[in-house]
Amino acid sequence: MKNLSLANGKLQASVISLGCMRISGISETEAENVVKTALENGINFFDHADIYGGNGKCEEVFAKAANITPQLREKLYLQSKCGIRNGYFDFSEEHILASVDGSLSRLNTEYLDVLLLHRPDSLMEPEEVASAFDKLQSSGKVRHFGVSNQNPSQIELLRKFVKQPILFNQLQLSVTNTGMIDSGFNVNTKFEIGIDRDGSVLEYSRLHEITIQAWSPFQYGFFEGAFLDNEKFPELNAKINEIAEKYNVANTTIATAWILRHPANMQVVIGTMNAGRITDICKASDVNLTRPEWYEIYRAAGNKLP
Q1: What does the alpha-carbon distance between residue 262 and residue 180 come to, in Å, rounded to a whole number?
Q2: How far is CA 60 from the centre of its chain?
Q3: How many helices (H) and strands (E) in the chain?
Q4: In angstroms, how far is CA 211 from the centroid of its own chain?
Q5: 305 located within any domain
Q6: Is residue 218 part of a domain?
Q7: What's the number of domains the chain is made of?
Q8: pLDDT for 86-105, tens place per residue?
Q9: What dihedral angle (degrees, nearest 10) is formed by the CA atoms of 29, 31, 34, 35?
Q10: What is the mean pLDDT of residues 169-191?
Q11: Which H/E stretch holds residue 79?
């Protein structure tokens, strides 16, 4: 798999990341096979959060399944997220520091390569976040920082106070969830699809060299289900299958390649715990869709061009 110069050139990481939100729901043997398959296919970036599996259970399961030696740890990028609590969000310094300590213990590692703030906290005091980031960086517990699901103004507020670059923004993106792309096509129109709900986050990220991590690449709506092989999306699946046949790959490969084709140099976060699907998806880094193919898939999903 191709590695990408991510996050302003600071990381040479796989363009596909394995999201480990579901790893606590499979057997120990299956978890070991999933991690092994990911590594064999070139994935070196693993995404976690302190809430996945309930109180970080997914981090514990991953650490046991990966059996990370010092030699292997040097080749991996481990990312975790903090800020979501039971019924509220918490970007307080106390919670950030405690969350990182918990993740480090569960992952059996001395440092996180990346820490993301998990969704926005409207009660955030950016000075507290800055203090937490300084302590985490100076202690060596976290090397790089980012956010998830934040718009440009929220990131700018954070950047005013923190010294560390904001290198990642984890955002929902699939061919059926294209809000950040749609509004760019429909500037200066009265079309509903032209409403900019994200503050031009796509263009902002490219301007500021923030890597977008695309989550739920095969989902439609907000966790409503997969669009692949779904009778609700006949035209889209027909087009994806047609192009998949041309490249002799699976439909998951093409759905992933559609995201990777964008020049924003995104990283795709996949959540499957199926080893076969992981292998198929990883082939996407070798598929370079043509411009007409990219637009054909976009339109087949029901997206209109002005």
Answers
A1: 12
A2: 20
A3: 12, 14
A4: 9
A5: no
A6: yes
A7: 1
A8: 999 999 999 999 999 999 99
A9: -110
A10: 93
A11: strand 77-82
